[in-house]
Design goal:
The protein is an all-alpha fold. It contains five helices and two strands. The chain has a domain of about 70 residues.
């Protein structure tokens, strides 16, 4: 299968299926030019980045019209001295809120378990009382 002529002649069982698969694969892997809208988007993005580098103005008007808000790259605000502390504070707050929620859920679960056990005891007593009354009335429950 190293030579092209071997790849083109697929003799034997399933040769037609392999040819169809190979044609489909070649078609899927063909190079396709980018659509004009993508090209326009990328050109606008490059213009906006150049504008951001030249000026400190966050608003940018591209050649094609409209007005864009050019935000700094996400990692830039993270490099500031207060960002680490802010992230740590948010994490600590999240841990406390989550811990309080978990504790509250456990308390509710304990209350529900206690109520269920109490209801089961009351039901058992009521059934035993009903059985006792039926025995006194002469009804045999062991049938």
């Amino acid at each position: 299968m190293d030579r092209p002529e071997e790849m083109q002649t697929n003799e034997g069982a399933g040769g037609e299926e392999f040819d169809a698969f190979e044609q489909e694969l070649r078609k899927a892997l063909e190079r396709v030019d980018a659509p004009p809208t993508l090209r326009a988007f990328l050109e606008t993005a490059i213009e906006a980045e150049e504008h951001r580098k030249r000026t400190s103005n966050l608003w940018f008007t591209p050649k094609r019209g409209g007005k864009l808000l050019v935000l700094p790259k996400p990692w830039r605000w993270m490099a500031s001295p207060w960002a680490g502390g802010a992230v740590a504070a948010l994490l600590v707050a999240g841990v406390f809120v989550t811990g309080a929620h978990v504790h509250e859920e456990r308390v509710k679960q304990a209350q529900a378990t206690q109520q269920f056990e109490q209801a089961t005891q009351i039901t058992d007593r009521a059934l035993e009382h009903a059985r006792e009354k039926m025995r006194k009335a002469g009804v045999d429950l062991n049938q």
